Amino acid sequence: MAKNVLVINGPNLNLLGTREPAVYGSKTLKDLEAECVAHGSKLGLSVNCFQSNSEGAIIDAIQAARTVATAIIINPGGYSHTSVAIRDALSGVGLPVYEVHISNIHARESFRHHSYVSGIARAVVCGLGFRGYLSMLDAIAESH
Ligand code: CA2
C-alpha cells in the first residue's frame, strides 16, 4: 500500500519568498510544496500539503490525518517553541512525526532553541532549508 505523507507548515511560512531571504531562502511555499510532491512521487509516496497560521486548524489537520496518513512531516513554525497543544495532538494520533526547520534554530535566539515537538519526533532536521523536508521524505520512504 502506498504511503501517504502529510506535510504541515505552521504560522508565517506562507510568507516564504517574500521577506527574510537570508534566513529562509527566496523560494515560496508553493515552490516548497511542489518540491515535496514531486520528490515524494519519485519515491512512490503520496504527499499532501497543508499550511495554516492558526494553532487550532493545525491541530484539526493532525487529528484528521490519523486515519489517512502514514507519517507527518511538520514545521510548526513559531508554535514549535510555545505549543503543548500541537505536541499533544501529534502524540495523540500516534503517527511517526518528522520535525523540520528551514533555519538552524540553535544558531538563533535562545527562545528558538527549545521545541515542544522534538521530544515526540522520530527525527528532527534544521538548517538545511527545503532540503530538510526532502530528506525526511527519503527517510519515510526507507522506513518500514
Ligand atoms: O526555521 C524554521 O523553519 C522556523 O520554524 C520558522 C519559524 C520560526 O518561528 C522558527 O523559530 C523556525 C518562522 C517562520 C516565518 O517564516 C517567514 C518566512 C519568510 C518571511 C517571514 C517569515
Radius of gyration: 14 Å
User: What is the terminal separation in angstroms?
Assistant: 12 Å
List cofactors, ions and other ligands: ligand CA2
How can the largest sheet be summarized?
A: 5 strands, parallel
Helix and strand element order: EHHEHEHEEH
Segments where pLDDT lies below 50 for 5+ residues?
A: none
Q: What order do the strands of the largest sheet run in, or round the barrel if closed?
A: 2-1-3-4-5
Could you give the count of β-strands? 5
Beta-strand residue percentage: 15-25%
Global morphology? globular
Average pLDDT confidence is 97
Helical content stands at: 25-40%
Number of helices: 5
The chain-level structural class is: alpha/beta
Keywords:
single chain, 144 residues, alpha/beta, five-stranded parallel sheet, 5 helices, 19% strand, binds ligand CA2
What does this 3D model show about the protein?
The protein is of the alpha/beta class and 144 residues long. Helix content is 36%, strand content 19%. It contains 5 helices and 5 strands. It has helices spanning 21-24, 29-43, 55-65, 84-93, 131-142; strands at 3-9, 45-51, 71-75, 97-101, 123-126. The protein has a 5-stranded parallel sheet with strand order 2-1-3-4-5, with helices on both faces. Helix 4 (84-93) links the parallel strand 3 and strand 4 (97-101). Helix 2 (29-43) runs parallel beside helix 5 and helix 3 packs parallel to helix 4 (84-93). The chain starts with a strand and ends with a helix. The model has no long low-confidence stretch (mean pLDDT 97). The site of ligand CA2 has 17 residues, from loops.
